[in-house]
């Protein structure tokens, strides 16, 4: 059954590529095996670097699904979610993710030019812990 849903995610990725967007597609399948929602990457056509299908579906799930339903839901996606999408998936409460290509496999398929489009940003921190923790503690320890 997973292969059927993965094939649909791959078909959605082909639709994205045909529209001029990066080739990524995803769908959410409920606990009973029903397809709840589908998305494809629209980051180029929407002019929105965050328009990844996994992120769009995680946002939809967080808005539209009861936590118990979300926990029983599976996201099928054509490629392993990036860090941004993984964070959204975790926060949305989805039960699991099944992907066709790993991030490492994706990197191996990209040209050097395509790989150069995304670069790591140097991070520096933590700093000012005593000041930064005040609003965080106030929010999470209410």
From TrEMBL:
PROSITE patterns named among the record's database cross-references: CYT_DCMP_DEAMINASES_2 (PS51747)
Gene Ontology molecular-function annotations: catalytic activity
Residue intervals of the CMP/dCMP-type deaminase domain: 1-120
Name of the protein this chain belongs to: tRNA-specific adenosine deaminase
Source organism of this protein record: Virgisporangium aliadipatigenens
Classification lineage: Bacteria, Bacillati, Actinomycetota, Actinomycetes, Micromonosporales
């Amino acid at each position: 059954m997973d292969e059927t849903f993965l094939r649909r995610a791959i078909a959605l990725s082909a639709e994205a590529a045909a529209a001029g967007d990066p080739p990524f597609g995803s769908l959410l399948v409920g606990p009973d095996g029903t397809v709840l929602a589908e998305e494809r990457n629209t980051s180029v056509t929407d002019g929105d670097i965050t328009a990844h299908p996994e992120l769009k579906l995680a946002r939809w799930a967080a808005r539209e699904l009861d936590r118990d339903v979300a926990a029983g839901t599976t996201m099928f996606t054509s490629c392993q979610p990036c860090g941004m999408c993984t964070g959204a998936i975790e926060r949305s409460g989805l039960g699991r993710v099944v992907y066709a290509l790993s991030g490492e496999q994706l990197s191996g398929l990209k040209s050097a030019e395509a790989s150069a489009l995304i670069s790591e940003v140097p991070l520096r921190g933590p700093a000012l812990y005593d000041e930064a923790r005040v609003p965080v503690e106030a929010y999470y320890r209410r």
